[in-house]
Amino acid sequence: MEYIENGIKTLNDFLWGWPLIGLLLGTHLFLTVRTKGIQRFVFRGIQLSVQKEEGSEGDVSPFGALTTALASTFGTGNIIGVGTAIALGGPGAVFWCWLTGVFGMATTYGEALLAVKFRVSTADGRMQGGAMYVLDRGLHMRWLAILFALFGCTASFGIGCAVQVNAIAAVCKESLNIPPEIVGVVAGGLAALVIFGGIRSIAGVCERLVPFMSLFYIGGCAAILIHNYDFIFPALRTIVAMAFSPGAAAGGLTGGGIAMAMRYGIARGLFSNEAGMGSAPIAAAAAKTSSPVRQALVSSTATFWDTVVVCAITGLVLVSSIMKNPSIDMAVAGDGGLLTTMAFAQIPIVGPGILVVGIITFAFSTILGWAYYGECCTRYLAGGHGLIFYRVLYILTAAAAPVIQLNLVWMTADVLNALMVLPNLVSLLCMSDVIVRETRRYLG
């Protein structure tokens, strides 16, 4: 087992090293240039997200598709992941994480556009789309489409389910003294109630849960920033300065240099918003829309909310808290989870409460979002006959997650996520002319 774990760790480190990070960031920049800065339409996308298109083909509203995508991207990475980036790369990592979100909006836009354009209607009238259909119908590379669907289906059990339930179990055990076994059963039961209803049920819950948890978390972070008001501007200056300068110390914080800040900031940003992974466009394909560009504009706002807003706010909360309480940085020793816990604990009751509710709701929403992604990948591979088996296995994974050794699960999920990226980028880069042509036709 040790040899297997070491082998997967080596493969994971290789796949998520500079080559893949550079390829993803390069795709973000490439599509930003080719779409002539599609990010400038972000507020138009926000407006379109709350406007229904009656009579258009699809299963859920544009807002339902957006919140389903946000459900999967809003996860522990927005909270603990940002803390890990700061712990390992210094405060400058927050800037690179934020910048990744800004440029990643172009990739999310391109993915969603292609997903809607090449979506299909199944035998039972459902709309299905995603990188597997783009690769199959657009590029006629069925073998690569099968690989993407296989990676996506398998990854959903790890990063989408087991890892998230384990995070809920850990915070419930530590903060509420609830046994992990009970948490697993409850999480599995609640997920089953939603998942067996299909995309309409998942989207219906996400439409209510995502806005609530987002506003609650952002409001809580605002309360902490008010408490840290005298360190907000020093924290901003430190984040920007240490993104471009070697490890100078500030208020107890020490940067790891430009390379470290870039590596961990970009990696956390990419992992948090999933831009380029090919997962979020699966939800976009189910939207009721008359134009691929219209839904793509809506979908691009997911990366805006996830990284440009939520991850940036989390980073500012953590850096300002650490600068106000320098002993935190000395105690965590590179542990992002501990750093986050100690930073939020600086405000008794309120801080830990925000962290607990944030982790539980963010993680549960990810369980729902990834369940739908896994279902779509399963349907592509095995048709509708495989859905019951997939759903049952997904629920059992959720129930058992708190007692599973997650080191190997986490690393395997990371590997599978990286393997999803590669065929998805093939579809994006090879079909970039289609993205440009559709964009010009709709936006002029």
Residues in helix, %: over 70%
Q: What is the CATH topology classification name?
A: Amino acid/polyamine transporter I
Strand portion: under 5%
N→C terminal distance: 57 Å
Main β-sheet, spatial strand arrangement: 1-2
The largest sheet is: 2 strands, antiparallel
Mean pLDDT: 84
- Provide the succession of SSEs: HHHHHHEEHHHHHEEHHHHHHHHH
The value of Rg in angstroms is 21 Å
Name of the CATH architecture: Up-down Bundle
Low-confidence parts: none
- Please give the number of β-strands: 4
Q: Which overall shape is indicated by the principal axes computed on the Cα atoms?
A: globular
Secondary structure blueprint with pairings:
Elements lengths: L1 H14 L2 H17 L7 H8 L12 H12 L6 H10 L2 H26 L2 E2 L5 E2 L2 H8 L3 H35 L3 H16 L2 H30 L4 H13 L4 E2 L2 E2 L3 H16 L6 H5 L7 H33 L2 H6 L3 H9 L5 H33 L4 H14 L5 H25 L1 H12 L1
Antiparallel strand pairs: 1-2, 3-4
Helix pairs in contact: 1-19, 2-6, 2-12, 3-14, 4-10, 4-14, 4-17, 5-6, 5-12, 5-16, 6-11, 6-12, 6-14, 7-8, 7-19, 8-9, 8-17, 8-18, 8-19, 9-17, 9-18, 10-14, 10-17, 11-14, 14-16, 17-18
Key descriptive features of the protein:
20 helices, 444 residues, mainly alpha, Amino acid/polyamine transporter I, globular, two-stranded antiparallel sheet, single chain
